[in-house]
Amino acid sequence: MSGTVESAGTEAACRRPDRQGGTAPPEAPTGQLRPARGALLDAALRVFTERGYTDAGLAEIAARSGIRVGSLFQHYGGKRGLYLALWEEFREEQERRTAAALASLRGRGVEDPVAVFLAGARAYLEGVWDNRPLVRLLDQDDGPAGFDALRRQWDRAWVRRNARLLKVDERQRTGRVRVIVLTTVIGGAARELGDCADGTEAREIVDEVCGILGHLTARPG
């Protein structure tokens, strides 16, 4: 699960599913694409959540979205494309959310790397709670072929960006391990948030995790 990031564009290996392999359909005007794609993604999330990725059917997704199966293939190329588009949409939203939090902090003149990192971590975890149905789906061991490899690539990129936020030299093993530990704490908290009973419990977890991260990043003395 990707986390505290500064918007850095989309990694080459994680491009939009309808552009992989050079098979994307001709682009239509954005205003025409957005409603259909949004309806398909909403329907796909509901069906994937209820049935799991493996047992989800394209006919049911199309029926729930009110859009023909042929249009589904045109926009996303099939079930795998829908799943990866949901993942990418979540990542992009999280990037926007954390980037806004960092910009707000820096706009107030705060440049301390730890403070900036903690602000990004909080924004990311709050985004996890807001998107918990999708987070629970992505955390299941039931995704399309190759998804785990894509997620590992993104997680490595996430560690690199966190290292830049904290101004840690990744070339040094101790610095790299430190950032990996911090990133892993955020990822583990994200999984717990997906199972929270209510907003009060979720806020308690976010506060607790940010306290732990603050302790782990505190400078000696």
From TrEMBL:
<dbReference type="Pfam" id="PF00440">
    <property type="entry name" value="TetR_N"/>
</dbReference>
<dbReference type="InterPro" id="IPR001647">
    <property type="entry name" value="HTH_TetR"/>
</dbReference>
<dbReference type="InterPro" id="IPR050109">
    <property type="entry name" value="HTH-type_TetR-like_transc_reg"/>
</dbReference>
<protein>
    <submittedName>
        <fullName>TetR/AcrR family transcriptional regulator</fullName>
    </submittedName>
</protein>
<keyword id="KW-0805">Transcription regulation</keyword>
<feature type="domain" description="HTH tetR-type">
    <location>
        <begin position="34"/>
        <end position="94"/>
    </location>
</feature>
<dbReference type="InterPro" id="IPR009057">
    <property type="entry name" value="Homeodomain-like_sf"/>
</dbReference>
<feature type="DNA-binding region" description="H-T-H motif">
    <location>
        <begin position="57"/>
        <end position="76"/>
    </location>
</feature>
<keyword id="KW-0804">Transcription</keyword>
<feature type="region of interest" description="Disordered">
    <location>
        <begin position="1"/>
        <end position="34"/>
    </location>
</feature>
<keyword id="KW-0238">DNA-binding</keyword>
